[in-house]
Amino acid sequence: MKQKRNLQKRLTRMLAGIVISCTLLAVAYLCYAQTPEDRAASAKAFVAASEVFSHPRCVNCHPAGDAPLQGDESRPHAMMVKRGPGGMGKSAMQCSNCHQATNLAGAHMPPGGPGWQLPPEDMPMIFENKTPRELCLQLKDPARNGNRTPKEVVEHVWTAPLVLWGWNPGTGRTPVPMSHDLFMKNMTEWADLGATCPE
Ligand code: HEC
Ligand code: HEC
Question: Rounded CA gap, 52 and 142, in Å?
C-alpha cells in the first residue's frame, strides 16, 4: 500500500514537472519566437538598408574583382592599383602610399580614412553586383563576413571609420543616399527581428 502511494506521489510530481516545463517553453516561444510579421519586417528593413551597401561609395572598396574601383560609375582604379596581399595594395602601389587617415582637400585628391585598404583576398566581402538577398546571406555568413554575428555586423556599420567615410567622402564625391541614422534604424530592425533575408 505504502509503496503504491509513493509511486503515485512520484508520478504526480513528474506530471507537474512536465506541465510546468511545457508552460515555460510556451511562454518563451511566445516571447522570443519570430512571428511571420517579424520576418516580413526584418527582410523589408534589409532591402531598404541594401541601398547603402550597393552604393559606389561602399562597392568601390567591396569589388568582385582584384582591384578597388573609382567614381560613381565604379571604373577600375587608375594606375593599375591591385588588391595585393592582405588588401593593402601591391609592391609600390600600397594604398597607404597615397591614401592618408583623412581625405586630402581638393578635387581628385586621394580620399582617406584610418587603415584605408580593401578586405583581404581570402575574405573579400564582395558587395558589387549582389542582389539584396545575396548581400544579406553573405552578411549573415561568419565564413564570409569576418566571423561576425548579425549584431556585430550592425555594430561594424555603426562605428567603423571606413563605413562612416561613405557619409563624408571628400570633394566631388556623392555621399551614400540615406542618413546614417535611418541606415542604422533599418540595420538594427533587421537584426533585432531575426535577421531574415529577403526572397
Ligand atoms: C576604403 C575601403 C572601404 C570602404 C570605403 C568601405 N569599406 Fe567596408 N570594409 C573594408 C575593409 C578593409 C573591411 C574588412 C575589415 C574588417 O573585417 O574589420 C570591411 C568590412 C566591412 C563589413 C564587415 C564585413 C561584412 O561583410 O560583414 C561591412 C558590413 C562593411 N565593410 C560595410 C561597408 C559599408 C556599408 C560601406 C559604405 C558605407 C563600406 N563598408 C565602405 C573596406 C572599406
Ligand atoms: C598612387 C596613388 C594611389 C594608390 C597606390 C592607391 N590609390 Fe586609391 N586613389 C588615388 C587617388 C588620387 C584617388 C582619387 C581619384 C579621383 O577622385 O579622381 C583614389 C581613389 C580611390 C577610391 C575611390 C573612392 C570613390 O568612391 O570614388 C578608392 C575606393 C580607392 N582609391 C581605394 C584604394 C585602395 C584600396 C588602394 C590600395 C589597394 C588604393 N586606392 C591605392 C590614389 C591612389
Answer: 21
Please indicate, yes or no, whether residues 25 and 42 belong to a single structural domain of this protein.
Answer: no
Answer yes or no: is the C-beta of 95 below 6 A from any ligand 2 atom.
yes
Q: Whose CA is nearest to atom 22 of ligand 2?
A: 70
User: Ligand 1 in contact with 139 (CB < 6 A)?
Assistant: yes
Q: What is the dihedral of CA 89, 94, 100, 101, to 10 degrees?
A: 50
Residue 8: what pLDDT? 81
Whether ligand 1 lies within 6 angstroms of the CB of 183 is answered as no
- Whole-number pLDDT of residue 24: 64
Measured CA to CA, the distance from residue 171 to residue 183 in angstroms comes to 23
For 89, the domain range is 37-192
Give the count of domains, the chain.
2
Indicate the pTM of the whole model. 0.90
Cell of 199: 526572397
pLDDT for res 1: 58
Residue bearing the CA closest to ligand 1, atom 12: 119
pLDDT lower than 50: segments of the chain: none
Find out whether 125 and 62 touch, Cβ atoms under 8 Å: yes
